[in-house]
Amino acid sequence: MHFETIPNEKKARLVFGLDWRAYATKGAAGERRRYADELDATHYVEIRSKEETVAGFCAPEPAERKGLKLYSAAARVAGLDRVRAKPAVLVLVQDGQRVHVILVVRGAVRIDQTVSLNALEACRDTLEDECAKDRVSLVTIGYGADLPGLDEPFTPAELLRGKSVGLVRKVPVKVPKFIPLTVIAGTVIYLGIEALAYFNPPPPPPAPPPTYMQDYQAAIARTFNGTVPLASALAPALMDAFGKQETNVAGWQFEKASCAATGFCSITFKREGGTYKEFDARAPAEMRPVVFDPNGLHLQVKGPAVPKVQKLSLAGEKRWPSAQSLIKQLQTDPQRLSTKPDQLMSHGYVVTLRPPQRLLARQPNPGEISGPLLQAGDWTIEGYMWQSRLLEKLPDNMALDSLELELKADGSGVHFTAKGKYYVFQ
Q1: Using one digit for the tens of pLDDT, what is the confidence trace for 281-314?
Q2: In this structure, is the dihedral angle defined by the CA atoms of residues 114, 120, 126 and 132, taken in order, positive or negative?
Q3: Which distant-in-sequence residues (6+ apart) come within 8 Å of 235 by Cβ?
Q4: Which residues contact 55 (CB under 8 A, 6 or more apart)?
Q5: Pairing between strand 19-24 and 52-58?
Q6: pTM for the predicted model, two decimal places
Q7: Which ranges in 134-185 belong to alpha helices (H)?
Q8: Helices (H) and strands (E) in the chain — how many of each?
Q9: pLDDT band with cut points at 50, 70 and 90 for residue 197
């Protein structure tokens, strides 16, 4: 669950990440109690219709709700007129490096979760496939600078329109009703106690905590369900994309660029005699929006889209080198003269490999591990544009996270810095 403050309401919070269920409106109280017990929920919110009720359940910590009113963001989204008018709506709200994801199908909340920005693409693909299988037309609306492919814009202010909508209430406590018995003797009392025990059996014992290997497999699934493009495929593709970019526009010169693994790159130009007005008149549509710095010396534009390439996959693990083999593979003869084992240098081409770490921070108990475990390490490669073709030779266990380009002021050319992660079994 994630909490967001509500402007001008100090004692109110918007809540994302409830577990949603649907049940018949007739007999809703019993169904609500059943789902609350199954989900270990203490609070709920309901969206009622004539035939069906859709409810979201959660269990906020006492410190999270003390003195506050909580409102479900998903319930407020489902109540918007333009959402109810469509068969299916996917709402994305970016909050820094995470994105709140809400899917409403025929007025019912299906998905209410928060994912990292890097994992958003895989999440969207899954939800679009589900809607396609159900033959439901999906419209995607959203708010955020890093959210491509939106059908309609969305503003966070839409979540503030209905102040009383989506109030999260405490699940009513089930209190058994005792009827005073004044005439019935001790035998009937005994039978009543037995009947009460029969209809109110003790709750089942809690499920055992997941083992280390179960958590490990979940960590692997999270890693490879996200954005993990092969460095050997994406880095050269980005280099080729920038090879087609204009370096000088209306008296402004390319200075640097930055690309993540998804979305669009960002390019910074520096003034070389031009003006903002001249650049704005000459800038093509694919560069917009243009952001002018207050210092009058720089401006930023939208760069090329990050191409979709083959993802790093465990299917190719048999071809992966070990950590030591990876060092040898990336070293050229001049690099072997380096005295620092984690920095492999040759003519300005610098490879930095950080020691790999386990995917799980917690230590396993004796006997919990079976077989070698996947580990991940950070890598950085720096060099000049004429050395970028060396990136095509990177092995299949290296994924790219970011690429930065910079035109050096000393006239040495365009310098690149590529960063990512490599994966090995230990």
Answers
A1: 888 888 888 888 888 899 999 999 999 999 998 8
A2: positive
A3: 388, 391, 392, 394, 400, 403, 418
A4: 20, 21, 22, 23, 32, 35, 44, 45, 46, 47
A5: antiparallel
A6: 0.51
A7: none
A8: 10, 23
A9: low
